[in-house]
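Input.
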Amino acid sequence: MAPSFAVHARRGAAALATAAVLGAGLAPAASADASPSPAAPGLFGASDPKFDGVFRQSMALLAQHTAGVASPKQAVDWLAGQQCADGGFTAYRADAGKACDAKTPLDSNATAAAVQALAALGGHGPAVTKAVGWLKSTQNEDGGWSYNPGGPSDANSTSIVIGALAAAGQDPAKVTSKRGTSAYDGLVAFQLGCDVDEADRGAFAYQPDKSGKLAANADATAAVALAGLGKGYAAEPAGKDNVDPKPLPCKGDEAGTSDPKAAAGAASAYLARIMDKEKDGPHLAAVQPGADKPAPDFGNTAETVIALAAGGHRDAAAKPLKWLEQNSAAWAKQAGPAAYAQLVLAAHAAGADPRDFGGADLVSQLGATGPKAEAAASPSEKKDEKQEEKKAKDNKGLGVWWVVGVFFVASVGAGFLLSGRKKKNQL
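Output.
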């Protein structure tokens, strides 16, 4: 399955946990993203960026922009430097100075996320144009997108690309495949229509199964509820007046709707309905890898808040937003910058204050996971940096033995993790 915003937000902590088990991660999992990574200067978070580097960075920069914070130049340059010559992005390039080749696994999700961030920041017109050109070149005949070029379209990838097109000033209805099918046509094809049980009407599937049947998927539905409005993650509230989300207007054997905004409204109605059924508060739930029971899905709940607010469904958005304010702190601390960013964007869309989110300053917490702004360094900090550089030079001969010692400690921790886990952690 192509990773959604929520999946990407969870990957930071999961990737570090895997690295720790292998003896490669030298930081405790509990503080996975408490500080920027020394291995990738400019990158937000300390967890392994292999799977989510570009996505994580894009969401962090986008969230800071909506909060009125000027992102550090080093962080912006890091993201811009990840782009390949043909315009596409991959999840992470360890050596951005090395040219991309045919083996570089470019993907629509990383590229679309980068477009949304760079377009919002401004000053990156050529990079955005090239990235949008690459996305258009990878559009499938059905109008949608797959995670990697050449695969079958899925709702999540199609959704994030539509958000990128809108952020770049493109009309998704006019972005068509060689067959003349638009991006919106590809999107609404994943919606469950009036021929299914009433409880599932309006929901979206990630992809049809081998027989062509669609199954309701909350992850995909949350993504499409926003994309159907022609909006990306930095969505603004639709207005001060509340509009209740409307279910599919089913009469007889109608299949549903081909209008993307109506489809998004029906998706929102489905999400609001299933969230209200949770006994411990309005939120989405999912069965996590290795678990046998559903657990709160903080990421997709935040994404749903963005979609509901962007659609003008203020009352429906207010309930899960309040639940997030009361319950998301531990999740965000563990998951890292993408999670903080997602909560900032949810607060922004719903008209809440991200600097007082259940008593937490999400903007500061997000900033603490990234590089410091150049202008923020005081004379005393610069003096300390010079002293540290001198100390590092003096202790150069001890470096090898320090690494050996830390690796030993990390290995002990890895053994403990392995002995305590009976099920494989899947990303």
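Residues 5-376 form a domain with the Glycosyltransferase fold (CATH 1.50.10.20).
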